[in-house]
Prior knowledge:
The structure is a single chain. By secondary structure, the protein is an alpha/beta fold. The chain folds into two domains: 173 residues, Rossmann fold; 84 residues, Alpha-Beta Complex (UDP-galactose 4-epimerase, domain 1), CATH 3.90.25.10. Helix content is 34%, strand content 17%. The chain contains nine helices and twelve strands. A six-stranded parallel beta sheet has the order 2-1-3-4-5-10, with helices on both faces. The chain has a two-stranded parallel sheet with strand order 6-9. The radius of gyration is 18 Å and the shape is globular. The chain starts with a strand and ends with a helix. The model has no long low-confidence stretch (mean pLDDT 97). The site of NADP nicotinamide-adenine-dinucleotide phosphate (NAP) has 26 residues, from helix 1 and strand 4.
Amino acid sequence: MKVSILGASGQLGTALQLCAPPHTHIRAYTHQQLDISDREQLTAITPCDVVINASAYTAVDQAESNIPAAVAVNTIGPALLAEHCETIGARLLHISTDYVFGPEQPQRPLKPEDPTGLPATVYGRSKLAGELTLRGRPEVTTIRTAWVYSGNLLPDHRDFLSTMIRLATGDPAQEITVVDDQYGNPTYVVDLARALWDLVAEENSAELLHLVGSGQATWCELAREIFQAIGADPQRVRPISTAEYPTAAPRPAWSVLASSRALPEWRNGVFRAVTGTL
Ligand SMILES: NC(=O)c1ccc[n+]([C@@H]2O[C@H](COP(=O)([O-])OP(=O)(O)OC[C@H]3O[C@@H](n4cnc5c(N)ncnc54)[C@H](OP(=O)(O)O)[C@@H]3O)[C@@H](O)[C@H]2O)c1
């Protein structure tokens, strides 16, 4: 099986390479090697069985003031990539996000077929537009995920887990406040990568899937679990409201997804991520 990976130095792109099944021939393209928004550069991807698009403009707050950059990578790029995949006869697995859902959502796990409404952020709208450019293409599967963390598996990558580990091992007198009124599915990047490799092994898959860790949590609950896992006192984390932690891009209060496949429970993932194990 020949598989090409875009966004190869990102959190998911790296985990995909670490978890690759034996006898998989991987061609991994970093942003430096290949810009997804450049049609010419995409021709570097030679015929293969599957292309996984793990590249994205993921700076959610910066996207609010840099719309062209977000659109180029999250909307135009996937459309150009899908055209190229059709040319070389490859299946495309494209990664999307819970942020495609707008703010007015029912308080139940959201299914792939649920209407998204209008996303509240530039990042969410650029990713939703990217999804829409791929609709109706039989060779493409779009996979939405959420709250992806890697912790000590990828120490150079700054994610929520590594931030919390740093705070938990720092000054014990420092007050740590974390938002407790936003709900989502913490997803260990290794579990996501493994589920994606399962999809690669299948002949074909549904047009739109959700892949997230089992169970739901608030950011504060996740932070306390991280503290617990590394032997720090979880009560050092004080819950606050979204209103007390303003961000340039508004965060969804409810983005719990119904996973199309059962991934390990999020607390299990936290335990492995703090020790950096697969
Ligand atoms: N992280 C999360 O919590 C989360 C949640 C929901 C969905 N997702 C989705 O999951 C996927 C993987 O996310 P991630 O956490 O692995 O993000 P990430 O760590 O930010 O990785 C994204 C990668 O894309 C690369 N990239 C940016 N612009 C590019 C371009 N023009 N051409 C080619 N590559 C480019 C980046 O390279 P540079 O850094 O060198 O620019 C980076 O290596 C994305 O589709 C994201 O939207 C992530």
